[in-house]
Fold this sequence. Notes:
By secondary structure, the chain is of the alpha/beta class. It has 11 helices and 13 strands.
Amino acid sequence: MHFVEAKGILSAHNGMNLYRGCTHGCIYCDSRSLCYQMKHDFEDIEVKRNAPELLERALRRRRKPCMIGTGAMCDPYLHCEEELGLTRRCLEIVERYGFGIAVQTKSDRILRDMDLLRRINEKTKCVVQMTLTTYDEALCRIVEPAVCTTARRYEVLCEMRRNGIPTVVWLSPILPFLNDTEENVRGILELCFSAGVKGVLCFGMGVTLRDGDREYFYRALARYFPGVKERYERSFGRAYECPSPNSRALMRLYHRECEAHGVMHDTEQIFAYLNRFPNLEGEQLCLPFT
């Protein structure tokens, strides 16, 4: 872990990343890709220690409140958050200035900040997003080794529902030859419906691989899943998009089940919901986070 003084914290689309890098160890993580030009080891977390001050300065200047997003490139609830509390300090600022928040995470550490999430949601709007990749707990411990498993994330979703906080699940990624089965997709969806999520986001049944990310992923495949790396190389070469051979059937299942349970599954509709800030005169659309 190392500290930097950031020049700014909010993107042009109202997103913020308080950390850079990750300690969750997910074998497929796109943020490892070389195109992001990270100049330090991925597990050596870069901490933007002046993020709260930058955020307060930015929100104080805003004429109208909107939704603030966090977690798109780096999980705001990494292991170091327990010690640093950077995310909590930023949530306090969001709440104080009357903005909304959309948090994306895989970690149950978010439960620590339930009091703030509730206060934000009572005043404006708070949405918690969680990634669910595999219904198989043993497989989850391999592909996402240093963060809580799917079963625990389901408990977090249920706890959010009990506290009146809406949730969205990212069904991603579906890894060809590992979890691209009807049993897996149906199992995850059943958890989503049971937890009362507002929407399930899925951009396709497959995984994307870039330089840097691909090499790390292939090393993990070679270590834990003999023969699967070679199947990827034969099937996809160095392609960016690696769709499951079962993609069409699984996407039909996903859309059909979400529709039957009244859960949002249209990508544009879900992002519009995430970015929509409520006010007394109706609803104001903010730009999407990056």
